[in-house]
Design goal:
Elements lengths: L1 H37 L7 E5 L4 E3 L3 E3 L3 H13 L2 E4 L1 E2 L8 H13 L6 E2 L9 E7 L7 H8 L7 E8 L7 H8 L4 E2 L3 E4 H6 L1 H15 L2
Parallel strand pairs: 1-4, 1-7, 7-8, 8-9, 8-10
Antiparallel strand pairs: 2-3, 5-6
Length: 215
Amino acid sequence: MKLKIIIAVLLVVIVGAIFLLKSNNNGGEVMAAAESTTKVNSGKKVLVAYFSKNGEQYSVGTIKKGNTKIIAEMIAAKTGGDTFEIKVANDKYPKAYNDLINYAQTEKRNNERPEIAGKVNVADYDVIFVGYPNWWGDLPMPVYTFLESYDFSGKTVIPFGTHEGSGLAGSESKIKSITKASEVKKGLGVYGHVAQNNKSEADKKVSDWLKGLGF
């Protein structure tokens, strides 16, 4: 009788040990997967370059901080990236909205390349976010200047922009055609009025998008 009890106890101990070993192994696999996910962009240097305008803007009135700048700052904060604001050296953009869009349309029609104030060493970065408002279904001309001024070979380029209904309007493909030697990821479009007036919603959109990119 005592022998049967001893055997039963040993069987319980052995089964328990096997179960514990399997649990620890599975836990190790889960932990490794989690670390792998968080390290997708670990160690990579990030630049958030953006063009943005304040003043009178469609659907949000007169603003002190541009819609795209708000999104750019969110991205930089979440990725630990540096920021570079794409500014025109001799900025003649009107503050009144109708005058601004007419000026932008003329720039586009003439295929202008406004001179950019300041420079950034793109070579120092692995990932470059490029932000802009949608102007006439296209990139603003200063953004063309920026993209054409640097070598993006081997870089990851990620577009983002603000709009009021037309999204990024094919600007992603234009960025691909300019930065041919780079990998261009899927971009994010955020409504300008959301960026300006509903920052919690804009923040969630940015967070979800970055998570999908591996950040």
